[in-house]
Design a protein that fits this description.
This is HTH psq-type domain-containing protein. It is found in: Nucleus. This protein is mostly helical. It folds into 2 domains: 36 residues; 38 residues. It is 52% helix and 0% strand. The chain is built from 5 helices and no strands. Helix 1 packs antiparallel against helix 2.
């Protein structure tokens, strides 16, 4: 039976808000309905997060950019699948040569 994780009292909370709440908060800030403090209190989003989103900081995905596009990867998968259906299994070296 899997263990159900329960947050301990006093631990830091990570993203306790939805994307819709964040967008609504940012829209309120941009239309000057609320200040940063009021929006942070109402939507329960940290002010630093609101500031970063307004300045477009940390908007890239984490990690290195991918080399191949999704279409190229799907073409590799189709090629390997087709070869396996014909009875020619592919090794790691063969796949590297194909790519």
């Amino acid at each position: 039976m899997p263990t159900i994780y329960r947050r301990k009292a006093g631990n830091r909370r990570y993203i306790d808000y939805t994307k819709e709440q964040l967008e609504q908060c940012l829209n309120d800030m941009r239309s000057q309905i609320r200040t940063q403090r009021a929006a942070a209190a109402k939507y329960k989003i940290p002010r630093s997060t609101i500031k970063n989103k307004l300045k477009n900081k940390h908007c890239n995905k984490p990690g290195h950019p991918t080399i191949f596009t999704i279409e190229e990867e799907q073409a590799f998968v189709a090629h390997v699948t087709e070869l396996s259906e014909f009875g020619f299994p592919i090794t790691d070296i063969d796949l590297k040569i194909i790519i």
